[in-house]
Structures are given as C-alpha cells and as structure tokens.
Amino acid sequence: MTLIRWTPMWDPFEDMDSWGMPALRQLNGFVPSLDIYQDENNVVVEAPLAGVKPENVDIAIENDVLTIQGKSEKKSEVDDKNYYKKEVRYGSFHRSVALPANVKGDQAEAVYEDGILKITIPKEEKARPKTVKVEIKKKNDPKPPLN
C-alpha cells in the first residue's frame, strides 16, 4: 500500500500536465483570496490579482452577492521548461461571496492599484424602526363602547 502525505493545500490537478492532460489543467484555474470588511457606510472587498489585467476582470453584484471573474493569460514562447516546482497559476477564475450587509450594488466602485483590486460598495440605508405604543388594559376594566 502506498502512503500519500496529507497536504492541506493539495491540488489534485497539480501533476496533470505530466500525465498528458493539459486541457484538464486549464479547468482548474485559481481562486483569488478576498479580504472583506465594512465601515459605517461601505462594504469593502480587496483581492490580490497580480498579473491580471483590469480589462480581463468582470465584477457583478446581485442580491447582495459579489461575483468576481476573469482570466490571467500567460504569453510565453517557451513551454518546454524543466520546472522544479510550478505554483504560479494562469487561466480563468471565478469567486462569489455573500456580502455582510445589504448594499447598493449599482453604486459600487472598483480600483486596481499595485496588483490589488479594491471594490467599495455603499451600504443600503437602514430602515427606520417604527415605534408603536402598546395599550395595556386591566382584566376588570370594562370594554369601551363600540360606536
């Protein structure tokens, strides 16, 4: 029996290129990491997308769910490199995440600077609570006459 060392970040597609299945490798792509935080007025999402051109990134917000998708392209004339380890990912990516607050998705702004995509989304204004006064009656009080 062969033992396989457990690796928490193991990629089952890592060796597919050596198996002669490069097309399946492209299906794997990568998943960008996200930092999500909020202040009083906005939800902010930051994603490191080094090497990805901003024109290759699409952002959508629907029902308070943010979707970031795109692709990174590798333009290299030499594909026959003798890699010792290959961890840099190329290909398409897709990430959807539920936002922690109700947002105004149509007012979102995105900035790409130094390889970091920063999306700022204004929060919906909170609905004001309606105050209703509750009248308390004692059990022995007669009911008021109906008009």
Describe this structure in words.
The chain has one helix at residues 22-28, and strands spanning 35-38, 42-48, 57-62, 65-72, 91-98, 109-113, 116-122. The chain is mainly β. A four-stranded antiparallel beta sheet has the order 1-2-7-6, with no helix packed on it. A three-stranded antiparallel beta sheet has the order 3-4-5.
Low-confidence stretches: 19-27
User: What is the percent of helical residues?
Assistant: under 10%
Tally the helices. Answer: 1
Annotated CATH topology of the domain at 32-75 and 87-122: Immunoglobulin-like
Q: Helices and strands: which structural class?
A: mainly beta
* Span between termini: 90 Å
Give the overall silhouette.
elongated
The rounded Rg comes to 26 Å
How many DSSP E strands? Answer: 7
CATH class of the domain at 32-75 and 87-122: Mainly Beta
The CATH architecture of the domain at 32-75 and 87-122 comes to Sandwich
The proportion of strand residues reads 25-35%
N-to-C order of helices and strands:
HEEEEEEE
Biggest sheet character = 4 strands, antiparallel
